[in-house]
User: Fold this.
Amino acid sequence: MRVLSSPLKFITAAAVVAAVGFGAPRSAQADVPTLNLFIWSSYITESIIDGFELQCGCKVVETDYQSNAEMAAKLKAGGDSQYDVVVPSSYYVPELADEGLLQPLDHSQIPNLKNLFPKFQNPDYDLNDKYSVPYQWGTTGIVYDPAKIKNPPESWSILYDPKVNPNYPFVIPKGEGRDQIASACAYLGYGFNCSEQSQWIAAAKLIVETKKRANFAGFVDETPARDQMKSGLIAVSTAYNGDIASCYADGSCKNLKFFLPKEGTEIWVDTMAIPAHAPHPDLALQFINFILNAHVGADLSNFNQYASPNQASQQYLTGILNTELITPTDDDNKRLQFLKPLQGAQYKLFNQIWTSVLQ
Amino acid sequence: MSKMVPRGVRNVLAGISWPVYILLYTPLALVAFYSLAPAPNTTGHSVYAYGVLFHDSTVFVALQRSLVLALGSATVSTILGTLLGYGLCRFRVANARGLAANLPSLIIYTPIIMPSLVFGISELIFFNFIHSETGILSAGLMTMVIAHITFQVPYVALTVFARLAGLDPNLFEASHDLYANGIKSFFYLTVPVVQPAIIGGFLLGITLSIDDFTISFFTAGPGSVTLPIYIYSAVARKGISPEINALGTLMITTVMVLAIAHFFITRSRDRRASLLPT
Amino acid sequence: MARTAAQGEARARNFRLWLTAGPGLFWIVLFLLIPSLVLLGIGFFTSNDYGSPVLPLTLTPFSQVAGNSLLGWDDGNIVIILRSLEQAGIATVVSALLSYPIVFFIMTREASLRPLLLLLIILPSWTNQVVRTYAWLELLGPNAPLTAVAHALGIVPPDLGIAPGAFAVTTGLAYNYLPYMIVPLYASAERLDWTLVEAGRDLYASGARLFWHTVFPQTLPGLLSGVIFVAIPAFGDYVVPQLLGGDKALMIGSLIANQFTETPDWPYGAALTIIMLVFTGAGLVGFRILTRKLGGAGEATI
Assistant:
């Protein structure tokens, strides 16, 4: 019996040595002010953080989350007193603001707001950028494998019409259901921003029918779906333009094609906001203003491969950012719409409809 | 004792077990294969991802934090769980009925049954409350360790219980006569007897801790990013990158090489020792 | 005199029980039961438009659990629970059937090799669950060798994979939870009393009966701990059904998780959890009563 313990001691000892060897976790010193940033991992570069630390004489502590919904759950359960800056997607801003989880921004502390494109200074989801400031933006379209699906129309029918893709596996994102119901509405001719209960239910029924098709390969969110596209597990999926740009850039998905459906699709924004009980709101405002600097905004987009909402940054963008994929043409722009915020009872009804689709 | 099993049966056992071992490692082989992805805009396999990984300090800080969290929480939960399993096996009135007698069992099961999101959110609300009232336990490594201990204790306790249950009670009585002292009898008799269960429980604790995302996410404070939190977040935004596959490959090969090396070292030492005249 | 001695004995026994079991129980009560009571209490609140709990108190969330919603009644939740039970049940049976031969295989190897073989069972679980499960998705995908066999047999239509699907979910669950069955089973089988097996050899003609009457009762406590470690977490798992099932068929774990995240309705989520705790708790009590009958005098499970 003793023999069992010795390898364990050995491994434990090795792990302890390794743990100590990496050096103790960096802990913030009490006298240096700290900005607590709550963001997706690898969504900001080390160099921007270093630049801000130098400017503010403070320390930035980054914490990662996996989805808007989990971030919102953490803020609701009291996490809003832990973080100074969070990065919710545009359609989440009204919900967070209505729930009292965000604080209004003091625009006098953010002079760089003027650098934003006019359309990002007064978006539908947050009038006059009261609670949020755009961080990066992008579009949601369709990615498909042209070797399997030959010359499909640029339409949502690639998902919802069994005749366009009778055989090959495809997925629909899971998420909160907004994009899905909207795309089904667009396909049915109600428009991407349908808002009638009867239209939602018709769209939900279409998705339930789609779920029953043999080649439906499940509810998979955009980024994991792109990975499945790359390894040939599926042939069609919705996708974020930046995800496709980055795999075009590193050469790992050159065989795939991307389009924005003609019936209309989403333009979205990831935004910066300050939680209601943020410990260091002044630093947070400084940070937001720093990101809106023309050069910093360009660095950010050059790193992330997503478009910059910052007009002043445009001249510094490089590579694929200047292509139609990231910067849509005027024709494409007509197809793009912000998702209208759902508030109050509408939100609740929508959730129940989406829940019944998932069941 | 193993000689009790006839050769034919042993062959059948091996015939079932080796394929299962291979099956356990097949996905990991694929992970290792994907870690050798070509560098950007090139073709052919490369160790590019490993280079990227070694320059990413956040990953190693997260890995180190996960190791501290796993070892720390598994140590405490092994002590609590062993005592718990031992106590319930030895000192509880056998086959008692009624709610009071069954209550300890139901309490032990709750961490296993509780959905992880409910678990995590409850802890977050609780620690927040404690912190705002008393100023202690601000969200961070400490609150994560406490939560991790909580979900590991039942696994240790049930494993230890499984080993003790059915053991001849007279054994304990005899040792009681021998050592006269409960504590001595616990350390000289019980601990050696349950040692494999203690170690098994400890390993399960490590396994649970090192792979936990949800409970860690909600009990973490600013900056306390563990490896699973880093990986889940990176996967959501960037997909499963070759670097993440490289990290998994490195972790498994390191532990495996250490364990196999240790096996050969102890075996050769034991053989040498057995050659010496006593 | 005799009575006081017996009382003293009982008191000493009780004292030792609290001294050993007390700290662990206290820890769970303090750090899980009390915190979760607060959250589960939410199950009796009204849900506001954003799914947060507000007054007045109500039983609406429990009516939602029963299947009522704004859109009328449907059997969705019942289907979800039955489906989860089925998946967890199959995964438990599969891992139990695999665990016995593996545990006895390890036990019949030389002593110095055994810890290594046991560690090798646990080791794969130290990689990230998402990474591992994604690898399974590829192994069961449309271009995988195993799928080619399924295509040839006509089980899966051409161009499609085995994953996502119910079979893939079962495979993923069994793969994930196998170590949690093997460890307790090994811990209890390692101290097997072989003299009983030897004695039984004269009594029972067939190997199966020998196993059933001599080995099985001795390993029952380990098996039961393993069943609990596999069945309950598999019942509530949501990572495997999401990745390998594509969430085409919702399981109870995902249903609860959704109520706190994507489609927030915290009171409904809390009510679902309460119902699940009550039924699982009742199931475990039933399980204990059953095992007492199986295990004879001694208690086979906590």
Notes: Chain B is about 80% helix and 0% strand. The mean pLDDT of chain B is 84. The CA atoms of residues 194 and 205 of chain B lie 16 Å apart.
